[in-house]
Amino acid sequence: MTRSEKFLSVLRIATKKKRDAARVAIETEHKLNEYEKKLSELRGFRSEYTLGSHAGNQSMTAKQLQERQRFIRQLDEGINILSNKVEGQRQNSHLDKQAWLDAHKHSDAMDKLMGKIRKMEICLDESREANELDDRAQYHRMNT
Fold it and tell me: Residues 62, 63, 65, 71: what is their CA dihedral angle, to the nearest 10 degrees?
């Protein structure tokens, strides 16, 4: 078994790790986009609700006003929770992208190393063939 054949399994592992890291980074980015979209929708809903209910404040009873304020507080709490989730997901996304970049660099380095190993094997094969031809030629000269 040649060196390049032995090294091929290492190269396959590095390529698989790169592919897996890319998949994870993409999934994390999609999740971040979903959270950001939900947060934007929730903020928009809160804004519409508070603007829309300001117009009707004069005709509200005290109980309705309290319920409206309670609902706005719940929206604010939900926005805060989702904002924290977005920030955490943003950090996860950054870490997963970095992991992919590291795996990509490692895989590229393994590809280059495989190329060098194959090149070296070709040179060694050519050198062996040249030596064999020289030996045969020398043998023929000595025997003729």
Answer: 160
Question: pLDDT 10s per residue in the chain (144 long)?
Answer: 888 888 899 999 999 999 999 999 999 999 999 999 999 999 999 998 888 766 556 677 889 889 989 999 999 999 999 999 999 999 999 999 999 999 999 999 999 999 999 999 999 999 998 888 877 888 777 776
CA angle 60, 61, 65 (to 5 degrees): 70
The distance of Cα 105 from the centroid of its chain, to the nearest Å, equals 13
Instruction: Map out the domains of the chain with their CATH numbers.
Output: 3-111 (1.10.287.1700)
